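In this supplementary section we document a worked example of the pipeline. Step one takes a protein sequence of length 292 as its only input; no multiple sequence alignment statistics are reported here. Step two produces a three-dimensional model, which step three serialises into C-alpha cells for compact storage. The input and output of this example are shown verbatim.
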Amino acid sequence: MSVDETGTERGDGGADEPGWDVDPDDESGVAVVAAVGRQTKAWRESAGMRAGEFGAAIGYGEDLVYKVEGGRRIPRPEFLDRADEVLSAGGKLAAMKRDVAEVWYPKKVRDLAKLEAKTVEVGVYANHGIHGLLQTEGHARVLLEARQPAYSQDEVERGVAARMARRSIFDRSPAPALSFVQEEAALRRPIGGRMEWRRQLERLLEVGQLRNVSLQVMPLDCETHPGMGGEIEVLKFGDGTAVGRSGGAFGGRPVSDPKQLRILELRYGIIRAQALTPRESMAFIEQLLGET
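The serialised model returned by step three reads:
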C-alpha cells in the first residue's frame, strides 16, 4: 500500500525490509500471502538457489526471504519483480502482485474499499477534517503521523497508501454519484503547512469539477444544523440496499435498517440544503486558495 516505498532497506544482505507483517486475524490475507510464499520458494528451489544466495541476488536479506516464503511477511511489488527476473519466472511471480495488492492495506480499510467499490451513490458530511476520499497524500500522511498512541512508520505508510487507493472510486465507470459537504473550519486548518494546505485546496477544486461529484461547504456562519453531533456517511448500492454511519447516531455503528437510514438521509438532506451551493462552494475554496 505504500506510495513512496519509504523505509525500504536493500543491498546489505541482512535487511528485514521491505514488506509488512501479516495480520493473523486477517484469514483471507494470510491465505493469499502463504500461497505467494509457497510459489516463491518453489521457483527458488527449482532454480537451485539457496535463500541467502537468492536474497543477495535480488538485494534483500536472507531473513526477509524466509519470512516471505513462510507466509509471515507481505512482499512489496519490487520484491516480486526482482524475484521474477532473477528466477526467470516469465512474469508468473510478478503477476502475483495483483494477488497481494489488497493485503498490503489494513483489513478495515479493505472492507470499506469493497463497499465503496459497489456503491452507486455516496453522501458524506465531514466536520472536523477533510474526508479521506478527498485528502491529498501529504495531508493524509500528516494526519496519520499525528495519531496517538503513535503509529509506527510502517503503519503510517500502509495507512497513507490505503487511503490513496480508495480514490480509485473517482475513476470508476460507470461513475457513482458522489456528494460531499465539508465544514469551513476543516478547510481553514493548514494541516501540513502552507504548501500542503494549498495542494489540498487545489485537490478539492479538482474533484469538485468532476461531473459526478457535488462538493459543498458548510459555512461557519450557519449557526446550527443536523450534523452538529458528528459526521454522516451513507453508501447506496445497485440492488437498492444501503449502509450508513454517523458519529452522532446509533452509537456510531454502521446501520442498514431502512428506518435508521431514513434518519441519516433526512439529516444529510437538511445539511445539503443549508450548505453553500456547489458553485458557491467552488468560489469559496478559490477564495481561500487566494488567501494562502
